[in-house]
Amino acid sequence: MKKIEAIIKPFKLDEVKEALHEVGLQGITVLEAKGFGRQKGHTELYRGAEYVVDFLPKVKIEVICEDSVADRAIEAITNAARTGRIGDGKIFVSSIDDVIRIRTGEKGEAAI
Amino acid sequence: MKKIEAIIKPFKLDEVKEALHEVGLQGITVLEAKGFGRQKGHTELYRGAEYVVDFLPKVKIEVICEDSVADRAIEAITNAARTGRIGDGKIFVSSIDDVIRIRTGEKGEAAI
Amino acid sequence: MKKIEAIIKPFKLDEVKEALHEVGLQGITVLEAKGFGRQKGHTELYRGAEYVVDFLPKVKIEVICEDSVADRAIEAITNAARTGRIGDGKIFVSSIDDVIRIRTGEKGEAAI
Ligand SMILES: Nc1ncnc2c1ncn2[C@@H]1O[C@H](COP(=O)(O)OP(=O)(O)OP(=O)(O)O)[C@@H](O)[C@H]1O
Ligand SMILES: Nc1ncnc2c1ncn2[C@@H]1O[C@H](COP(=O)(O)OP(=O)(O)OP(=O)(O)O)[C@@H](O)[C@H]1O
Ligand SMILES: Nc1ncnc2c1ncn2[C@@H]1O[C@H](COP(=O)(O)OP(=O)(O)OP(=O)(O)O)[C@@H](O)[C@H]1O
Ligand SMILES: [Mg+2]
Ligand SMILES: [Mg+2]
Ligand SMILES: [Mg+2]
């Protein structure tokens, strides 16, 4: 099973959520974050205004899915989150050993 | 070493914390999150009211522990967080390569 | 590629950021967190006042980097975040399978 973590622009959350839903992904966790990438000292557009890129508000999305769905999920996030401008975000993919659904005690892929 | 991430109902945080303490776990990190699981478009109870399940407030717990303690930690979280209703939460288990205690520079299991 | 997660004292964020920049690391994600380590029931100093250590405000930093840079990043964080007092924080290191830069579609180390 894979964990897909995406740091995106906050206003893209709804589009990313819909895109994940369209490829059949149902579970998603969202956290507020701030961050910066490669443009430290340069400017980035945020809500129409230019900011010196230090920490900018970002949203962190976490999606756990089966291996076979990961590529589709990554593509869905990439396409939905992209504006073409710097700061569009990053996706980090890692491996998960186990999943447990607390209500039922189900484990593994059945619990996703 | 294992990383146990649990997304739970916020009002269950204290019970989960106590349950972890009872199995000997001392360290815990907590983040505010929002999310949804499989019931998109259906309703979930939150503080006695019914919500259409889009994003609901959740708490994310992160516990790093030795491999030998992981099963007990997962069981403790599962039992403490369960209400029997949908939305009780998920646990994700992954592997950690190293831990460092910043104050002392200790590494590995000694640093947990 | 490695994921370095560090839970530090909030007032140390700027120093840690500068230390990472000095070893050539450009990307960083920051989340607000709360937590406790081994001193449950004891006191910890926070902004000059003593608190019984239950949940204290912490900052969580996430840095994804190439394997060859990880040790330098860990050392930079450790040195910048250390005050010598309890509660200085923890660093957790894990492995990342892939990285994607959303704007360009680049993958792997080129996307970091
Ligand atoms: N190496 C990294 N480690 C941790 N977080 C990162 C890293 N790189 C980027 N991020 C996070 O992703 C967010 C978006 O990064 P961003 O899209 O600016 O990446 P970038 O590499 O600078 O690409 P671009 O040139 O398109 O701006 C940052 O604000 C930060 O939160
Ligand atoms: N696949 C997933 N990826 C990421 N986060 C998830 C996933 N599934 C659930 N979550 C997180 O866990 C929270 C609780 O999920 P929930 O307990 O509703 O799971 P579920 O599979 O729908 O089980 P149930 O049928 O008991 O409701 C969600 O709000 C979301 O934050
Ligand atoms: N095992 C753990 N799992 C998850 N988070 C942890 C763990 N240990 C510590 N943390 C997080 O790191 C923060 C700082 O921990 P802390 O520095 O107090 O660790 P410690 O082991 O008690 O070391 P010290 O003796 O120097 O205080 C905690 O508030 C918590 O958020
Ligand atoms: Mg950038
Ligand atoms: Mg659900
Ligand atoms: Mg401590």
TrEMBL record, chains A, B, C:
Entries under SUPFAM superfamilies matching the protein: GlnB-like
Nucleotidyltransferase found in the keyword field: no
- Tell me the leader sequence span: none
Q: Which domain of life is it from?
A: Bacteria
- InterPro entries found in the cross-reference section: N-reg_PII, N-reg_PII-like_a/b, N-reg_PII/ATP_PRibTrfase_C, N-reg_PII_CS, N-reg_PII_urydylation_site
Keywords noted in UniProt: Nucleotide-binding, Phosphoprotein, Transcription, Transcription regulation
* UniProt entry tagged with the keyword Nucleotide-binding: yes
Pfam families the record matches: P-II (PF00543)
- To which protein family does this belong? Belongs to the P(II) protein family.
Q: How does it assemble?
A: Homotrimer.
Under which name does UniProt file this protein? Nitrogen regulatory protein P-II
UniProt organism field: Acidiphilium iwatense
The lineage is:
Bacteria, Pseudomonadati, Pseudomonadota, Alphaproteobacteria, Acetobacterales
